[in-house]
Structures are given as C-alpha cells and as structure tokens.
Design a protein that fits this description.
about 325 residues, mainly alpha, Farnesyl Diphosphate Synthase, two-stranded antiparallel ribbon, 15 helices, globular
C-alpha cells in the first residue's frame, strides 16, 4: 500500500474533495438506496481510476484541475461501480473486496436496480452539466466492456481463442475503462486536443498490462502462494494457456482441451494443466508481453515534462505489473 500512497500524493487534496463530491452524487430520496450507496462508498478499493483522471489532468494543465475533472472522476466511478454491482449478479458472487456483495445482502433484484440507478446518476451528471464530450468517452467504454464480456462468453464455449482475439477481449473488458479514465482527465482540461487520444492510448496500454498480470496470478505468485486455477475451472482462455496450446503437439493440445472441457473441477487435473502451461513457457511469454505493454505506456509519457504527476503515472504503470495481488 506504500506505493499506492506515493502515487496518490500529488493528487491527495483533489482525492479528498472528490470523495465528498462522489458521496453527494449518489444521494437519493429513497432511504433504502441511501443505505446501500453508503455501504458501497465505505467499502471502496484503492480508487486507482479517479487517480488516473486527476493525474492526467494535472500533468496536462500545470497542476490545475477544474470542476469538469471532478465530474469526470465521479462519472467514471459511478459507472464503474454500477458495472461491478451488475457483475456480481451475473457471476453469482457473494463477496467483493472481502465484503459481502450487494446481491448477497439485498438480493439480485435490488442489486440490478442499484446498478441501474448508479448508471443513470453517472449519465445525468454529465448531461446536466453539458459535458457531452466526457459522456461520449464513458459511453464508448461501457459499450466496449459489454461487447468484451459477451465475446469472451461466446469464445469460451468453443475454446478457440487466438492470441489476437484474447487481446480484443481484454482491451474491451478491462483496458477500455482505464483508457477512459485517462482520456477523461485529459479532455476535462484540454478538450479536442491531441493529448486526449495520447492519454486514451496510455490508459489502454496500462489496462492491457494490468489484465495480463491478473491472468498470471492464476498460476501462482510468491506473494499469493499456491496457484488458484480459477480461470481454468471457469474455462477462461488466458494468454499463458493460449501460448502453451500454440506450442505443443496435437496430442497434448487435445489432452489440454479435454481437461478444460470435462475435468475442470478435478483439482489434480487442473494442477497438471498448470504445470503443462509452465513447462511450455506460457508464463514467461505472458510476462514478456505484459512488460512490452508497460514499456509502450511509459514511452508515451516521455513527450511530457517531468513533474510529480508524470512520476506518479510512471509509478502507477510499474505498480500495475509489480503488484502482488
């Protein structure tokens, strides 16, 4: 957490003010809704997304943010929270960041309606203030996230994901939201400038590295301990596995696909698949790709002056690939 605190340092003041504004943006006349949103606000994570918004804006605008920056951060957090609430319903998940999920405490119907409420609050926050450029950025991200999830579901049933399709899925599912954060920050202070696209690309590259790192956790990590094999149990085709399947014999390939399709609940078989992926160099290959995305992201920042904000963004990119969970 020390690294996260260091990243947050140059925008600590803005983040404090943002939290108050974000809380206000959730207020409703319905007591039940206020109780649930209070629960959500008090169990938030590291808040990396708003940090991306403020750091991008401050880097581009000589350390100054405006009301649009705060609204951009609030919109992204409202819509991101809405998608998490809906995800927990879809995944039938009872936990979120170690706490009970909304659907676990208040059942699916209420969770879906809360997600809808948060989504509409985010949209109205932009519309009421005429931030149509910011609304376009976030709306594209929501569309892509939905498409990415559906593409993954479609491909999972056939287990025929190529490396290119895998990148498409993670770009839409994960990277597009981080790309939107960075683009929102840039657009809030420099609308219609080329910097909006530069920062969108920077966020996308960060998001790609972030998701590959997440996929690697499934195969074990010094900080986490034993491999989990959850992705294999859920028949998710991730980069280490795709690489291993592309670099093995026909016999090995059919054994792996049979294992994932028919023996994905068998702990011994899942362990054997994990060992196979490691032996074929799948983890090493995924690490190389992750670091390439990181390096491309860092290179994009070099065109901007070296400031505390650029340093914090560089630290953020490195944290994405070095984190232990």
């Amino acid at each position: 957490m020390k690294i996260v605190a260091k990243i947050k340092e140059p925008v600590a003041k803005e983040m404090e003010l943002f939290e108050a504004k974000f809380r206000d943006s959730m207020v409703s006349k319905v007591a039940l809704l206020n109780r649930i949103t209070y629960y959500i606000v008090n169990r938030k994570g590291k808040q990396m997304r708003p940090m991306f918004v403020f750091l991008a804006a401050k880097l581009l605008n000589k350390g100054v943010v405006n009301e649009r920056t705060y609204r951009g951060a609030a919109v992204i957090e409202l819509i991101h929270t809405a998608t998490l609430v809906h995800d927990d319903v879809v995944d039938e998940s009872n936990k979120r960041r170690g706490f009970f999920s909304i659907n676990a405490l208040w059942k699916n119907k209420i969770a879906v309606l809360v997600g809808d409420f948060l989504l509409s609050k985010g949209l109205l926050l932009s519309i009421d203030n005429g931030d149509f450029d910011l609304l376009r950025i976030i709306s594209v991200a929501v569309r892509e996230m939905s498409e990415g999830e559906l593409l993954q579901i479609e491909k999972a049933s056939r287990l025929d994901i190529t490396e290119a399709v895998y990148y498409d899925i993670i770009r839409q599912k994960t990277a597009t939201l981080i790309a939107a954060c960075c683009a929102l920050g840039a657009c809030s202070v420099q609308p219609e400038s080329k910097d909006v696209e530069v920062f969108r690309k920077f966020g996308e590259l960060c998001g790609m590295a972030f998701q590959i790192k997440d996929d690697l956790f499934d195969y074990g990590n010094k900080g986490i301990g034993k491999p989990t094999g959850i992705d294999i149990k859920e028949q998710k085709m991730t980069l280490p596995l795709i690489y291993a399947l592309n670099n093995c014999s026909k016999k090995e390939k059919s054994w792996v696909i049979n294992s994932i399709k028919n023996y994905n609940k068998d702990k011994v078989r899942v362990k054997e698949v994990i060992s196979f992926v490691k032996e074929k160099g799948g983890l090493q290959y995924a690490v190389e790709k992750m670091l390439a995305f990181r390096d491309d992201a860092l290179e994009l920042l070099q065109q901007y002056p070296k400031t505390d904000y650029r340093d914090a963004l560089e630290l953020m990119v490195n944290y994405v690939v070095d984190r232990k969970k």
